[in-house]
Specification:
This is UDP-glucuronate decarboxylase. Belongs to the NAD(P)-dependent epimerase/dehydratase family. UDP-glucuronic acid decarboxylase subfamily. Keywords: Decarboxylase, Golgi apparatus, Lyase, Membrane, NAD, Signal-anchor, Transmembrane, Transmembrane helix. Pfam families: GDP_Man_Dehyd. The chain has a domain of about 220 residues: NAD(P)-binding Rossmann-like Domain (Rossmann fold, 3-Layer(aba) Sandwich), CATH 3.40.50. It is about 40% helix and about 15% strand. The protein is built from 9 helices and 13 strands. The strands form 4 sheets. Strands 3-2-1-4-5-6-11 form a 7-stranded parallel sheet, sandwiched between helices. The chain has a two-stranded parallel sheet with strand order 7-10. α1 links the parallel β1 and β2. The longest helix is centred in the first third of the chain and has 22 residues. The model has no long low-confidence stretch (mean pLDDT about 100). The protein binds nicotinamide-adenine-dinucleotide and uridine-5'-diphosphate (UDP) (2 copies). The site of one uridine-5'-diphosphate (UDP) has 15 residues, from α5 and β8. One uridine-5'-diphosphate (UDP) binds next to α3.
């Protein structure tokens, strides 16, 4: 039987590289498209010998003409320091990138997944966040290039579905962590683990009372693949994918220090603007439709993340 050919944009990034690996292991032919802005060849080095894996250096803000059966659209820097580095390019990546990938999906009649985000809820006034909540986003703040870009991408996905009958799946991903997070990308889990391993101060922004809910990458990839593979065409989302276990950032810092056995002290730094106060997914819909809920607790997930960064720092 002919293998299904799957395009993964952002395939050399943190989540993308795990998704490439998973789909190859499921017998798919995988094409990874990436401009390597925040992704790394190191993330996909171990896949390069697989004859069914292919890499294209390409920026999704430009058109792409290839023949595929399915598309996972993950291209977009995800950490605040990277998406705020060139905010205009960030919005272009979400919006022009979505238009190009939707245009491609329309031409080749491919099913297409969009990596949307909990950031569409902004600084939420409803807690935990169900998919029905429309969000509280500052349209012109420092996070807007990412948040509004992703919101507009959702709009485009739903309009291509309504207007052109495209087979879409929109997943709203909450904070995810694990091996292959970039060491320098400023996200809280990678920062804390690396700081703890180096014995440097753990930098808490603000009081550390703000909360996040952290999902281990293997759980998240399970959720994405099940959404794509196991739901009927008329189930298009948006669907939250995340771990409802909620922690304050200070609790996370203390857990990391303890698990690493580190001598690091906590140092408080200013809170970046528009930093959401709380975030926790309501995953009732995912439980009901794909029978999915995260299996890996924070201690287990942190252990393998710590091992990864230990290896990275030694290399
Ligand atoms: P990442 O930065 O590791 O990966 C993003 C990838 O996209 C990188 O490989 C980068 O080089 C590539 N990319 C960026 N701009 C591009 C462009 N114009 N053309 C082609 N490639 C481009 O981030 P990640 O954590 O793996 O996130 C992947 C996706 O999931 C993103 O769309 C992100 O918004 C979404 N997401 C992630 C999280 C999370 O916690 N990790 C949460 C919500 C949503
Ligand atoms: N596109 C692409 N690959 C394709 C088909 C389309 O990159 O295989 C891009 C193309 O640049 C186009 C965009 O997707 O502008 C949207 O395509 P659509 O067919 O929806 O609209 P068009 O602008 O062509 O009318
Ligand atoms: N954060 C922190 N110290 C760091 C990095 C991040 O206290 O070194 C905080 C940040 O202000 C935010 C939370 O941790 O409140 C999560 O930040 P991250 O950038 O990982 O994700 P996002 O804010 O996009 O959810």
């Amino acid at each position: 039987m002919k293998k299904k050919r799957v395009l993964i944009t952002g395939g050399s990034g943190f989540l993308g590289s795990h998704l490439c690996e998973r789909l190859l292991s499921m017998g798919r032919e995988v094409i990874c498209v990436d401009n390597f802005f925040t992704g790394s060849k190191r993330n996909i080095l171990h896949l390069l010998d697989d004859p069914y894996f292919e890499v294209i250096r390409h920026d999704v803000t430009f058109p792409l003409y290839i023949e595929v059966d399915e598309i996972y659209n993950l291209a977009c820097p995800a950490s605040p320091i990277h998406y705020q580095h060139d905010p205009v390019q960030t919005t272009k990546t979400s919006v022009h990138g979505a238009i190009n990938m939707l245009g491609l999906a329309k031409r080749v009649k491919a099913k297409i997944f969009q990596a949307s985000t909990s950031e569409v809820y902004g600084d939420p006034e409803v807690h935990p966040q169900p998919e029905s909540y429309w969000g509280n986003v500052n349209p012109n703040g420092l996070r807007a290039c990412y948040d509004e870009g992703k919101r507009c991408a959702e709009t485009l996905f739903f309009d291509y579905n309504r207007q052109h009958g495209l087979n879409i799946k929109v997943g709203r991903i909450f904070n995810t962590y694990g091996p292959r997070m970039a060491m320098d990308d400023g996200r809280v889990v990678s920062n804390f683990v690396v700081q703890a391993l180096k014995g440097e101060d753990i930098t808490i922004y603000g009081t550390g009372e703000q909360t996040r809910s952290f999902c281990y990458v293997d759980d998240l990839v399970d959720g994405i693949v099940r959404f794509m593979e196991d739901t009927p065409d008329d189930f298009i989302g948006p669907m939250n994918l995340g771990n409802p276990g909620e922690f304050t950032i200070r609790e996370l810092a203390e857990t990391v220090i303890e698990q690493v056995g580190s001598t690091s002290k906590i140092a408080y730094k200013p809170l970046p603007s528009d930093d959401p106060l709380q975030r926790k997914p309501d995953i009732t819909l995912a439980k009901r439709t794909i029978g999915w809920e995260p299996q890996i607790d924070i201690v287990t997930g942190l252990a393998s993340t710590i091992d990864f960064f230990k290896g990275y720092l030694k290399a």
